[in-house]
Amino acid sequence: MPERVAIVGVGYSDIRSITPGLSYKEMMYEAAVRAYEDAGVNPRKDVDSFISVSEDFWEGTSIFDEYIPDQLGAALRPVHTVSGDGIHGLACAAMLIHTGRARVVVVEGHSKHSDMRTPAHIHNFAYDPIYHRPLGAHPHHLAGLEMTRFLFESGNTREHCALVVKKNMANALLNPRAVYGARVSLRDVLEAPPTFSPLGELDIARPADGGFVMVLAGESVAGDLAGDPIWIAGYGWCTETPAIDSRLWGEAIYAQLAAKQAYRMAGITDPFRELDFAEVDDSFSYKELEHLEALGICRHGEAGGWLEDGLTLPGGDFPVNVSGGSLGGGHLLEATGLHRVHEVVLQLRGQAGENQLPDVERGLAQSWRNLPTTTGCVVILERA
Amino acid sequence: MTVKIKEWPGTALSSRDIEEGRVLTVRHKLRAEYEWDAGVAIGRYLRELKNGRLIARRCGGCERTLLPPRMFCEECFTPTSEWVYVGATGTVNTFSICYVRWDVVRLKEPLLPAVITVDGASPGMGILHLLGEVRPDDIRVGMRVQAVWKSPDEREGAITDIKYWKPIQGG
Ligand SMILES: [Zn+2]
């Protein structure tokens, strides 16, 4: 049995739509200071390895990981980058501890989206240059395609997707870390200007700047640290296929398979009964419903009805995205997974403020690496 | 060729086939534009360059003077504590005589990048910049140099507000 691993410290830099006053280094430092204080560790002495998740094109600097050590307290220490979502980085940190190579590992992820002047052009660069880019559609058109097929196959409706927007933006109003909280009506969402129909303007999570740092420790040392440990019970990640012309359009198979790995590791057979709540990717409104079904929390085609019946509202049987998600909290590029993990950790510690759910013992965080990817990650976190 | 295959199948392409459009080519020019926020430390550093001055940050922990300035000390992992001006003179730490420019153009007159330890900053701290008014053969590690600034109306708050660093006569 590998050693159990806990998240013993979390910190974030204030999430904003733009952050003109700070460099990405100063932003990361802010998150790091809070995380180390929370865990009671000195990064210059107590941390064995540092991991950053970043993608050079979002940063505008090649080999970006070379720029991270100073502001994390990681100079002259083992450092590497995972070019993936924050939960990829978290899993990597947990595995470093499982192997016995490290006892305390730090994971960092951030978004400095506002540094990009031409984000759509940079995003478009992720598409195939020979047979997709020449068609000239905006990168978000894939979400329109996916939503059409998902609604067609699952029987969920356009109105259900609008309810997701309404719920998450309302949840965000109570969360001081969420930037796009608002009270919107179903009509506001349905009558917003169409973008990549059936998607409208309000169905798409808006980008934000912000960052997270987390400290992970093995069971043998976690007890000696100051932080309130939240245990990592299981994790998994999966990529379907880059083939846009032949991937599964009606369901998120990557999330289903990533969850299967995480559930096996955590010994979960009935996620609805064995989990108390979840933070799932809602970069586009329909994604929350699609992911909830893929995670096996409800059956295919049930997610919209569940929301209609209030089951996934903060007071429901299985609250989803109580934090406000990405629709209410802003999309944070590769830090999106850590954004969700952070909210789950605060819930399990009882530190979620006005959003706090009563009696939560175990929660799930799931991420998706956004368009055009079919990559998703899942992590299960628990109190005891 | 092998025993079985006397001639490889297919048609060889020449550059003319591509130039004359006889085969499909795809060109994608990436428009990746950024406006990186300089932040508190580098923001002030650049403003002071416009004033014709070099500014550093002092760490109260290790008592080093950090140039370029930063709001945190990477050694102590604490916030730095005060702004201090440092001189526009220094010592060549290392240099290279470059006959090829960044875009791979050959140069007759070499570019002279150097790392300069700036007077007033802690040992090993300073600026990567260019040398000027010096014959390449005369450059030495340890040579004393001073900044040559653009005129105040030409300065724009950029690293190029210093034109180059030249040897201090008798230095
Ligand atoms: Zn120091």
Describe the protein.
By secondary structure, chain A is α/β, with parallel strands linked by helices. Chain A has two domains: 5-118 and 208-222, Peroxisomal Thiolase, Chain A, domain 1, CATH 3.40.47; 125-206 and 233-382, Thiolase/Chalcone synthase (Peroxisomal Thiolase, Chain A, domain 1), CATH 3.40.47. Helix content of chain A is 35%, strand content 18%. Chain A has a nine-stranded mixed sheet. In chain A, helix 4 (86-98) packs across helix 15 (336-349) and helix 7 (158-173) crosses helix 12. The model of chain A has no long low-confidence stretch (mean pLDDT 96). The radius of gyration of chain B is 25 Å and the shape is elongated. In chain B, a hairpin with a 4-residue loop joins strand 3 (72-73) and strand 4. A five-stranded antiparallel sheet of chain B has the order 10-9-6-11-12, with no helix packed on it. With 171 residues, chain B is mainly beta. Chain B has one domain. Chain B starts with 14 loop residues before the first helix and ends with a strand. Chain A binds chain B through residues 19-26, 29, 36, 42-44, 57, 60, 69-71, 73, 75, 112, 114-118, 121-122, 125, 129-130, 133-134, and chain B through 26, 28, 30-43, 70-72, 74-77. Zinc ion binds at residues 59, 61-62, 64, 73, 75-76 of chain B.
